Amino acid sequence: MEPIDKVETYLEYCKYRKELDSKTLKAYRIDLRQFYDFVCCENPNKEKIEEYITELHKKYKQKSVKRKIASIKAFYNYLEDEEIIIENPFRKVKVKFKENIILPRIIPREEIEKLLNCMYGCLDENDISVYKYRLRDIAVVEVFFATGARVYEISNIRSDCINLNSGLIRIMGKGGKERYIQIGEPDILELLKKYYTENEKAIKECGYFFINQRGGRFTEQSIRNMMKKYTKLAGIDSNITPHMFRHSFATYLIEEGVDVSCLQQILGHSSIKTTQIYIHVAAEKQAEILRTRHPRNKMKIGNAA
Fold it and tell me: Of these residues, 48, 66, 114, 174, which one is catalytic?
């Protein structure tokens, strides 16, 4: 079987048997094509694979290298399991990474407050031409902060996936995995009801809950542009992105004492290791609290020296 045939067979397996999404399949295809373009043979040996891994380290950041190696490793495991190859050369290749913890960027609480106050300040019921779209903009940002959902998850919420009475939202996450998130704040629920009432006809025709001015889905890029516009309007110098709301949501819940395994379910992480990154972020806040608010700071204690 030619390399290209092996790859196509594997991608079909990933699509129909493992039910992976189109973005993951696209990444696998690119990673495997790059691999075979480099090795230039059907069955590369351990040395050739090692050479390719070295080349990856020269060209890409650690996170990308790790992902690309994982793609190839999974591919070889499949070939071995299906007995397409007799010996898996990857079993002889030892890949170890020194994990560099990159703390996610969060939005300071005062900036979230400033942004939302600016957005609510732009609401004017008398300005009929833009009122319903400004309602949508606020609703989108409120849902980001209320749920910690990803930008494509918010953009793709179907109109029948949100219960405006109970506040329960069905989210379609990575790999088509479903999860439910509860909107717990009555004011946000009222806002969503107002937005729906103003846009009901277009929402029903479109099928998506958040719609643009042409009656189509409010896309991920449109959401990013909208957030950038209001950030500038609010006089906030930092660049606020939708994903920073997800980081902020998670970090602030950890600071409030929410259990990490519970947060894992809310965020839709398949591994708790992904969620645990927010403990490190919250630890910085804890250090600040202990530095500034510890009762010993107010005690009159002489130096031990």
Answer: 174
Other C-beta atoms lying within 10 Å of the C-beta of residue 204: 11
Question: What whole-number distance in Å separates Cα of residue 153 and Cα of residue 174?
Answer: 9
269-305 pLDDT, tens per residue? Answer: 877 877 787 777 676 666 777 777 777 777 777 654 4
Q: Catalytic residue at 174? A: yes
pTM over 0.70: no
Tell me which residue has tokens 């790790």: 66
Q: Cβ distance 183 to 167 under 8 Å?
A: yes
Rounded distance between C-alpha atoms, residue 106 and residue 248, angstroms: 5
Question: Which tokens belong to 41?
Answer: 């043979």
- Which one is catalytic: 6, 134, 136, 150? 150
Alpha helices for 148-185 (secondary structure H): 151-155
Phi, psi of 170 (to 5 degrees): -95, 120
Active site residue 214: no
